[in-house]
Amino acid sequence: MKTVFITGVTAGFGEAAARRFLKEGWRVIGSGRRQDRLDALSAELGDNFFALCFDVRDKAQVFETIRNLPEHWQTIDTLVNNAGLALGLGAFNDADLTDWETMIDTNIKGLLYVSKAIVSQFIKQGHGHFINLGSTAGTYPYPGANVYGSSKAFVNIVDATIT
């Protein structure tokens, strides 16, 4: 049975992806920041769903959590980098710097932290796949999406080739 690791599993695309992978016979490791939603998903989805509560922005927590996965959950075949967010729709000159930092820390740095924490397992196994969810805003930004669009453009070009 194959295992997928999905970030941002507590809502939206991440939750839908978890349900689809489970339906297709995969085991799912799902991460998110909201323990209550992870608990509800665990109760509903059963033994082939393993919940991890952490914030992808916290580098130390990401590496520690992934390094300490239970042995029977350490073989990960696919990583779905889904965690991300869009904050603020104001003009560039009126934008809140905290919103920018949160988007950069989540959409770019969080994706990199999780990928880096898992890539050594892919190398050890001799296989593994990355799926990085971007956005059309990375190619066709909309008014007010100045930093969000830029962060998703990064996701669209990141190259996780391993040798």
Features:
163 residues; alpha/beta; Rossmann fold
List the helices and strands and how they pair.
Elements: E1 3-6, H1 12-23, E2 27-32, H2 35-45, E3 49-53, H3 59-67, E4 78-81, H4 97-125, E5 129-132, H5 146-157
Parallel strand pairs: 1-2, 1-4, 2-3, 4-5
Helix pairs in contact: 3-4, 4-5
How many DSSP-defined strands? 5
Order of strands, widest sheet? 3-2-1-4-5
Shape: globular
Mean pLDDT: 93
Per CATH, the class reads: Alpha Beta
The helix fraction, in percent, is: 40-55%
Biggest sheet statistics: 5 strands, parallel
By CATH, the superfamily comes out as NAD(P)-binding Rossmann-like Domain
Given the structure, what is the number of helices? 5
Helix-strand sequence: EHEHEHEHEH
Computed over alpha carbons, the radius of gyration is: 16 Å
CATH topology: Rossmann fold
* Number of domain modules: 1
How would you summarize what this structure contains?
The model has no long low-confidence stretch (mean pLDDT 93).
Descriptive account of the structure:
- This protein has 163 residues and is an alpha/beta fold.
- It has one domain (3-157): NAD(P)-binding Rossmann-like Domain (Rossmann fold, 3-Layer(aba) Sandwich).
- It has helices at 12-23, 35-45, 59-67, 97-125, 146-157, and strands spanning 3-6, 27-32, 49-53, 78-81, 129-132.
- A five-stranded parallel sheet has the order 3-2-1-4-5, sandwiched between helices.
- The chain starts with a strand and ends in a 6-residue tail after the last helix.
- The mean pLDDT is 93.
